[in-house]
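User:
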Amino acid sequence: MKKTILLVSVFVVCFWVINGLSSCTSTTTEKVYAYNQVDVEPTFPAGEKAFSMYLRKNIPSALNVDQSGIASFTVTKTGLLTDVKILQSVDDAVDAEAIKAFKNSPKWMPAKKDNQTVNVSCVLPFSYLKKTKERNNF
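Assistant: Predicted structure:
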């Protein structure tokens, strides 16, 4: 069920971006393609679930919130995440930590268009989870 909600959220947000409802601009001088304009989408090396785990690990657990946010970013043709912005904010302090986690992410597998690596704009929902005793007992 959670995976279905996540996928629906991604598609809704992508629809917003494609239709210009988001004002995401890139600081790169090279062309940045929309997510739906590439032949091969960018991916986190270990997959979507691993990226979610990476974010949970790298957003400090001292932040006492349990909500969702939405981030936009560019995956460059070298696999770096740039132009990170929070589209759906939770809290300024939490947003700052999320931006730091996105920017410090391991390199992604870049997108491809016509067998060339390209820059691509992405939008991704993510969760901030409170640390509970159950989550601490791993």
